[in-house]
Input
Amino acid sequence: MADAMNFPSNATLAMEEAFVNVVNYSHATAITVEVSQHDGSLTIEIADDGDPFDPTQHQTPPDDEAVDQDGFVKVGGKGINLIMSLIKDIAYQRTDEKNILTLKTDI
Output
């Protein structure tokens, strides 16, 4: 029997945010998530067949653009920065009509 995987809370939150972004915005019809642990490192790979989007090239809007004309905070735009703040390494590639996002962190 394999040992239980040590899954830190920062990785859980980053994976959840990335997955929710795919579900809500990519128009994907298929999503796969693979998780592996090796030599003190946790790797999460999320692949989808949705619209091409490279989150590593995403620019967060300035804070003064985060509020609408009525003074309400706009929803969205901060999740990718959250992921990047929680994860040690993030990589993106588009292969065979699929987005592949790889998140790595120490455990």
Summary: The beta strands are 31-38, 41-48, 89-95, 98-106. The chain has a mean pLDDT of 86. The radius of gyration is 15 Å.
